[in-house]
Structure formats: structure tokens, C-alpha cells
Amino acid sequence: RLLHIAPFYEPAWAFGGMARAASALCRALVARGHDVTVVTARLHPAHPPEDAMGGVRILRVGGPRPLARRLFPWSPGLTQRLAPLLAQTQIVHLDHAECNR
Hints:
There is one protein chain. By secondary structure, the chain is an alpha/beta fold. The protein is built from three helices and five strands, in the order βαβββααβ. The chain has helices spanning about 15-30, 65-70, 80-85, and strands spanning about 1-5, 35-40, 50-55, 55-60, 90-95. A five-stranded mixed sheet has the order 3-4-2-1-5, with helices on both faces. α1 (about 15-30) links the parallel β1 (about 1-5) and β2 (about 35-40). The longest helix has 15 residues, at about 15-30. The protein is globular and about 40 Å long.
């Protein structure tokens, strides 16, 4: 059981390469027989809070819209959301984005 935490994930393609890389990695892990859950930012109201794509379970958490527009997907309450998942997880992979302005 793998937990992948990524600020950007499918179908948030407008946010760049991290969404594409995270999606490709998670789908490849599912193809190898792994149980993969992704926790990511809910960047668009049309994206459901819980979803499944390509065998990957996706949990999206909301945050302040102005921060998301600045590519800073912070979510109050994320710790509480992750706590029950961590008890069921064997490996955690954390993506992060660094932005130089």
C-alpha cells in the first residue's frame, strides 16, 4: 500500500509537469500490482473530493483559492486527513514543488 502526496495531480494539467509525472508514476505502480492512494490539492470545483483514475484512488483536499492560484496548494486540516491513511500505508512518497521567483 503506497500513499503518494502531491500538490498537483491529474486532471490538473494546467499546473504543469508535476501533475503529469505524479500521474504516470502512480499508474505505473498500479500496473505493477501496487495499491496506490494519492492525496492532492483540489484546485478546481469540478474535480471531485474523492475519485479513482487508472486504478489510483485520489483524495483531493481544498484550500484557500488565492494560494492555489499562486501554485501554493496549502490545505488546513491536511494532517487530520492523512492520519487514518498513514495507519494503512507501507510506503509514503512526498512530492514537493520549489518555486524561485
